[in-house]
Write a structure and sequence with these properties.
homodimer; 420 residues; Molybdenum Cofactor Biosythetic Enzyme, Chain A; 14 helices
Chain lengths: 420, 420
């Protein structure tokens, strides 16, 4: 089944809002075997909406729209699309009653009449229930089986409605046409602490994966992600092919893999600490709290994370972490000697089993020929055993800091003997 | 002038990559008076590219594409679009020489033959110089003045080429058609520490702005942004109308405004400290380093920021900040008493003039009837004068933490007597 997506709204068209709905729809539909062949974005003008949807309908006979179903009076999506099908709008009393009940439960005062237009639907339309908001979705179909599904633009509502209602409906249509749908599914192995070309060298012939699955190298500040994609086969076959290919990759480069898909290295480090009954503290200079923020971003981190010291100024490294003034004078703030003392100082003063320290030159200023911007020293102290490592990042200030925090997490995981 | 944008690539169509190019193009073009009427995304298939570009060309006669110009051999954008114009591809020796020189400067070893296809251009095409990468852009025009501009997909390169080369060229075409172009420009006043409806009440009649400029309320974790939009007038008129409307808004709600457009509250706080010769430290519990990370994200922050303590566990509040165990036992970690002692402790121990403290319940767990999830206590100590404030956030863990850090910055700015 081939589908087109039309996202609607001046905010999107003018670039004030990033179109996250379109990407989500594409991933979900492709993963279920529905092929998206084009996405279009138009503004709120009814004529623009009508033309774009009519054209898409002529190309594929199956169109999903997002946006333009809200309570504001200038949303003209529904009547524009109803007109393509030659349908009039009518007030749906059931929807109106539900809207009023929802309003009464949440707000004081009378139901605003302007909200009633959410209860206007095209004649002969099927309602797609919205369990995550007020505006219902709409499914409109003609006697030739051509259809348009209208979803709300609010991402949370759109995602809920897609999963709850629309995707099952679309798959039912696809099944009625016979044959098992062919899906596009992907699996990502997340690596860190190793470069893209080193990975490619290690994989060598393994890059020829069973079923010829393509392998994409996606380098970023978190490391290099390896994305496998299976296309053109039924769901079960795709998942099995991804499993096989992922194990072949893991045989070769498993020690650098810290997780799959949306895995987060900070969560992996917390799990490794938790499994060993360890607590953790941080000592951060150039990252200024970023590492602590990443660790504590994870719900339930408080059984592992004690806290840390943001030792941005040298006087704080001395006063709060016990770094010796002599070390700073002799070796500088960005040095192996300093980062080791930061880690040990944090572990001792905060009373944790593990402490992770970062000091570096995030830029744009502050670089020297010896220690250019992007020079980062990392250290981890595990029960008194300190490991230090220098990394060199290439990026802007933000990226250098992110890479420093990620590098510190990778070093910690390795020091804990937990791979990656 | 009306333009369509076509973004090209399987990665975009399948939703693996968010289409940030499309939003950037839309904002820049609208700001210069070029109206975007539709955006489309298609995959890498040459037929899909050709159909989408041909249709767009028929609708507007002016099309900008992004993507598909890189060195990988399956990029077929250029020949697909050349075919629409009935043009053959030819090797451009000047581009090839530049590609080879660029390669030799950056990489060892021979120039890979596959990269040479970046030097293939349609006959009669105009080259758009790429000062930010290797693949040049291409401008193709027929004798009726219909044109397609092809830009690379890498955002940094696309943005550079748009500003350096394409936008001046498009504006020149628009000017040749006579009449001053009408632009869409916006101005955003950023407020924090006050709700959307309170702002609306304060603005009252002021919401009727000169020239009828529409005012959008955009609530988010950083506060409520007020966006003014001027449309349908020449650039100078739009800017003047925005100036007038912004001053009317500032008269009414100026004390809540911390900046315009992309202003960052952390930078505003640093500026306020710098102007008074003050240094700053942080003491963070539930935010775990997020506030420190925001302050140090700003280049040059080291003349103001000394550092801080991430006091996630209660034992760290006591050991590193001198919070009294009795205070924690009597009032709890999330309380006015604790947050005040955290701020004062940080100021004294780090030796700063200002210290900002945050303690709260970020969720999803840890809430009680008295102190539900989202209960945040903030304090700022300026030279020994402590101000504390309780805020209640409604969101997920990440949003509660972001709002807590933003609230702490807002409180600091007010304590420094610097508005907002």
């Amino acid at each position: 089944m081939r589908v087109e997506v039309v996202t609607i709204g001046d905010e999107l068209l003018l670039g004030y809002t990033l179109d996250s709905n379109a990407a989500h729809l594409a991933r979900e539909l492709a993963g279920a075997g529905v092929e998206i062949v084009r996405r279009s974005t138009v503004g709120d003008g009814p004529e623009d909406i009508a033309v774009a949807v009519r054209e898409a309908l002529e190309r594929t006979g199956a169109v999903i729209t997002t946006g333009g179903l809200g309570p504001t009076s200038d949303d003209l999506t529904k009547p524009s699309i109803a007109a393509i099908f030659g349908r009039k709008m009518r007030l749906d009393e059931t929807i109106l009653a539900a809207l009023k009940a929802r309003w009464a439960k949440r707000f004081p005062g009378e139901f605003p009449q302007s909200n009633a237009q959410q209860a206007m639907i095209p004649e002969g339309a099927r309602i797609l229930a919205n369990n995550h908001g007020s505006a219902p979705g709409i499914w409109l179909e003609d006697d030739r089986g051509r259809w348009v599904a209208m979803l709300p633009g609010v991402p949370r509502e759109m995602r809920g409605m897609l999963a709850d209602t629309l995707l099952p409906l679309v798959l039912e249509r696809a099944a009625a046409r016979g044959g098992e749908p062919h899906v596009v599914r992907s699996r990502t192995l997340r690596t860190t602490g190793i470069g893209e070309s080193a990975l490619a060298d290690m994989l060598g012939e393994a890059a020829r994966l069973p079923g010829g699955l393509p392998l994409a190298y996606l380098p970023g500040w978190e490391g290099t992600d390896l994305r496998l994609t299976a296309r053109g086969m039924p769901a079960a076959g795709a998942d099995a092919a991804l499993d096989r290919a992922a194990s072949i990759l893991r045989e070769k480069i498993g020690k650098w893999v810290y997780g799959e898909d949306t895995a987060d290295l900070a969560a992996t480090v917390l799990d490794a600490c938790r499994a060993r009954g360890l607590t953790i503290a941080v000592a951060e200079s150039c990252t200024g709290g970023m590492l602590g923020a990443r660790l504590t971003a994870i719900a339930g981190s408080s059984d592992v994370v004690l806290g840390g010291v943001i030792a941005y100024a040298n006087q704080v490294k001395v006063a709060m972490l016990g770094v010796r003034q002599g070390t700073l004078d002799t070796h500088g703030a960005v040095s192996e000697e300093t980062v080791r003392e930061m880690a040990s100082g944090a572990r001792q003063r905060l009373g944790s089993s593990v402490a992770v320290a970062i000091t570096g030159i995030a830029g744009p200023g502050g670089g020297t020929p010896d220690k250019p911007v992007g020079t980062i020293w990392l250290a981890v102290d595990v029960d008194g055993h300190v490991t230090a490592k220098r990394i060199q990042t290439i990026g802007d200030r933000d990226e250098n800091r992110r890479r420093a925090a990620q590098g510190a997490l990778a070093l910690t995981l390795r020091a804990l003997g937990a791979g990656a």
